[in-house]
Specification:
The complex is a heterodimer of chains A (161) and B (245). Chain A is mainly α. Chain A has 8 helices and no strands. Chain A has one domain. In chain A, 82% of the residues lie in helices and 0% in strands. Chain A is globular, with a radius of gyration of 18 Å. Chain B contains 9 helices and 9 strands. In chain B, strands 1, 2, 5, 6 and 9 form a 5-stranded mixed β-sheet that branches. In chain B, strands 4-3-7-8 form a 4-stranded antiparallel β-sheet, with no helix packed on it. The chains are: A mainly alpha (161), B alpha+beta (245).
């Protein structure tokens, strides 16, 4: 176990790992919604996971989301994105961040569609859970778009200035 | 002369019949039930009507707060009470058999009306308490409303609600003399037919085709009886057989 931890810490020395971990934490409620959809048979079987994720999603919407934004934006600005010209090749790291954000955007849009489609079975758990899931998936879609725009904007800073 | 005497005798018999017909008074008590605090008080419905043996409805007169009375012919077999209410209360109709015999007691029926509200898993867990506390008309009102609200999407809640409604109909039939046995049997048959295609919605509540067939058999054996169901008493003592949490 100790060897595993030391191997892991050796491999996670690159600053980019902070971005990946923060993005993963930020997207955790989104993964939670998709996981609860999976374990509750499309929300049609009662599951305690739906209630737990619903509570987390509600709390995340009200309190944590804005704080997370203040962490993600400087991380993207300061560490993760290299500035490039319009004719230059995009660095692999920038492309990796862009693709990750694009994938998360797609996931959040799919999650929004599934939540809206499953309105009735989610309300059968609790209406508050449905409201939280819907607001959260909409918020994720908007924010991932904003982060994508931010990534592109930072990357092209040199050519636009 | 004989014909005249005969007609006079017939008239006297008819008169006695009318007098006897006015002798039985039906009393309906309408109560407004508040689900989440479990309290009820007398309701003020828009109207309370009665249909005797499916004949034309007649309005019952208000006797006291939440109490309505009307006359029933002694030969009446069943009555349907319809309670019309204002939103958010939900209107109700109950049909019940009247006891047989010439010296039938004056029927007194207690009908509960409930408020419109969200139906979810929490509601179904709360509702079943009224079965266990033997408040069967309340349980029937709650499950009847719930089934009308759960929609057509198949889910564990829909299955559970339909099963609870079947149990409520069955209990009301066997204990309160409501005419609901056929409806209960239909819902149970519907669930048994649904099981093979959607067993995952039945599993969390431990409902199996065998357990539902046992319930149906008990219902068919006891259908039409006006006695408190020995099956229900037994099932309530061993709640797992009801599979109702």
């Amino acid at each position: 176990m100790r060897a595993f931890v030391s191997r892991l810490t050796e491999r996670l020395t690159d600053m980019i790992w902070i971005v990946w971990i923060v993005l993963a934490l930020y997207a955790l409620p989104l993964f939670g919604i998709l996981f609860s959809l999976f374990v509750s048979d499309g929300f049609r079987v009662e599951s305690s996971v739906v209630y737990v994720v619903g509570t987390i999603a509600d709390e995340f919407l009200r309190e944590l989301r804005v704080t997370f934004g203040t962490i993600v934006v400087p991380l993207l600005t300061a560490f993760a994105v290299k500035t490039v010209g319009a004719d230059e090749k995009v660095p692999p790291r920038t492309m990796a961040i862009f693709l990750s954000l694009a994938a998360l955007l797609v996931l959040s849009v799919i999650a929004f569609g599934l939540v809206t489609y499953s309105r009735e079975p989610i309300i059968q758990h609790d209406k508050k859970v449905y409201d939280a899931f819907q607001s959260l998936t909409v918020a994720y879609s908007k924010e991932f778009l904003t982060y994508i725009a931010l990534t592109i904007g930072i990357s092209l800073k040199r050519t636009s200035s | 002369m004989r014909a005249v005497l005969g007609s006079m005798f017939a008239a006297v018999v008819a008169l006695l019949g009318v007098t006897a017909a006015e002798g039985v008074t039906l009393t309906v008590e309408v109560l407004e039930f508040r689900f989440f605090n479990g309290q009820y008080n007398t309701a003020r419905p828009e109207s309370v009507t009665v249909e005797i043996d499916r004949a034309t409805a007649q309005e019952l007169r208000r006797n006291a707060e939440g109490e309505y009375v009307g006359d029933v012919t002694p030969t009446a077999q069943q009555v349907t009470i319809r309670v019309r209410t204002r939103d958010p209360l939900i209107a109700r109709a109950v049909t019940m058999r009247l006891p047989d015999g010439k010296s039938k007691p004056a029927p007194r029926i207690r009908v509960h009306v409930i408020e419109r509200q969200d139906v979810n898993y929490g509601y179904s867990r709360e509702a079943v308490r009224y079965l266990y506390s033997n408040e069967l008309d309340i349980f029937l009102a709650l499950t009847e409303y719930a089934l009308s609200q759960v929609g057509q999407t198949d889910s564990q809640l829909r299955v559970r609600t339909e099963y609870q409604y079947a149990i409520a109909l069955m209990s009301a039939c066997q204990t309160l003399n409501y005419v609901t046995c056929d409806q209960a049997a239909n819902h149970l048959r519907n669930l048994i037919a649904m099981y093979p295609s959607r067993p995952r919605f039945f599993a969390p509540d431990n409902l199996t085709p065998e357990s539902m067939k046992t319930t149906l058999d008990a219902l068919l054996r006891g259908a039409g009886t006006s006695l408190a169901s020995p099956w229900l008493a037994d099932a309530m003592a061993n709640r797992h057989r009801l599979a109702l949490l």
